Amino acid sequence: MPIYDYIYGTVDKNSNTLYENSVKRNEESPNVVHLTHLTTPESIYHLRLGFAYLASKPYSSVWYLWLLWPVTLWFMVLTKIYRRTFVVERNRFDQIRLQTWAIPTYRVQYCLKRQKESINNMIEEAVLEAEEKGASALSLGLMNQASFSASSHNQSLCLQENYIKKKKGEELNRYGEVYVKKHPQLKVKLVDGSSLAVAVLLNSIPKGTTQVLLRGNLTKVAFAVTFALCQKGIQVIVLREDEYEKLDKSFGTKFEDNFSKSYSSCKVWLVGDDFTEEEQRKATEGTLFIPFSQFPPKKLRKDCFYHTTPAMQTPMALENVDSCENWLPRRVMSVWRIAGILHALEGWEEHECGYTMCNIDKVWEACLKHGFQPLKVPIQSKS
C-alpha cells in the first residue's frame, strides 16, 4: 500500500495478508529461454531493471549516464561476485511463456581467453537450469553461442558439407554443441538461430541483385549465406585474398566462377565483425550495408544505407513488450531470439547447434506463419 495510507491511518487491514498470499504463489516456469548478456557497463540502465525510459528506446550512449559512474562501478563489482544469470524480461505468445535471461558479463570479456572457462560455466548452468524448469528450447543470443579472441580475423576456417572446422581453443562453445555433447540426455533444445538468420539475410537482398560483396569474419552464417547466394547465381565478391581462398576451396570448382577477389562498385555489402572503417569508406554512394553479425557496424556514411542486424517485426499477439532488444526498435526481435520461439511453437525435436543447420525454407515459412514479418530494407523504404 502507498506510504501515505500508513501515515494517515487509512491502510486496509487485509492488505498485509493479501500481499503474503500473493508472494506464496509458485514461480512461473518458462517454455522458452533466450540467453543474452550485458554489452557495456552502461547497458544495465537500458534493461527493465534500469530506467524504463531508456529501456523503451533502442540502445544508444547518452552522456548523462556518466554521472552515475560510481553506481555503474559498484554494479560491475557486483557482477564479478554474483556470477549467475538473472531474468531480464518475461513475455507470452500463443500460450508460450517466454523469458530472457542475462549473464552478468560484458562484450569485452568474451574476447579474453582467460574468461572462456568462467563464461562457459555460467552458460552451462543456465542451460541446466532451463532444463530443470521444463523449458523446451533455449536460444543463444549475442556472443553466448560462439566468440573468438581479438585476433579472430587470422583464424583458419574451411567448410565441408556445411561443417565449419576451427582451430581448437578459439571458440567459446561451438554454437552450443559443447553442452549437447556433455549432456547427451538434454531435453531442452539448444538453438543458435543460424538458419533463420540466413533466411532473413537472403530476403533482405534487393531483388535483381547480381553481385554481393562479403566482408567480415567468416562465421557459420557467413558460409551458409554465401553458399545460398552461389546457388542462386549471385556473384560473391571478397576483398581479402585469404577469404577468397577459403571460400573458393570450401565450395568446390563448380562455384569458382561466382567468386571475385577484385573490388568493384557493388551496391550491396554483407558485413560482419572485423569490418573496418577504412573498408566502409571505400563503398560507393548509395551502398546498402546488411550486417550478418550479432553486432551492427558503426554508421560512418550519410550517403549510404544501413540495415539492422538480422531481425523481424513481432506479431501483436506477443504480450508484455515494453522494452527494446539492444539497438533494435520497439517490437522488433533478433532472429536468434525468434528461432527459439519457433522451436517451441513447432515442436521441433532437434538441436540447432554446432555446425548443423535447420532447413532454411522450412524455418522461414514457419516464421511467417506465426506472424513475424521481415523489416523494410532502408533503400526500399526511401525509394
TrEMBL record:
Q: Which InterPro entries match?
A: CER1-like_C
Residue stretches spanning the membrane = 63-82
Identify the main location.
membrane
Superkingdom, according to UniProt? Eukaryota
Q: Where is the Very-long-chain aldehyde decarbonylase CER1-like C-terminal domain?
A: 212-374
Keywords in alphabetical order, please: Membrane, Transmembrane, Transmembrane helix
**Any single Gene Ontology cellular-component annotation:** membrane
**Topology relative to the membrane:** Multi-pass membrane protein
Per UniProt, subcellular location reads as:
Membrane
Name assigned to this protein: Very-long-chain aldehyde decarbonylase CER1-like C-terminal domain-containing protein
